[in-house]
Amino acid sequence: MQTDTTRENPQALAPQAADSNQDLAATAPGQLRVIKRNGTVVAYTDDKITVAITKAFLAVEGGTAAASSRIHDTVARLTEQVTATFKRRMPSGGTIHIEEIQDQVELALMRAGEQKVARDYVIYRDQRAKERATRGHAEDAGVQPHPSIRITRADGSLAPLDMNRLNTIISEACEGLAEVDGDLIQRETLKNLYDGVALTDVNTALVMTARTLVEREPNYSFVTARLLMDTLRAEGLGFLSVADSATH
Question: Fewer beta carbons below 10 Å: N end or C end of the chain?
Answer without folding.
Answer: N
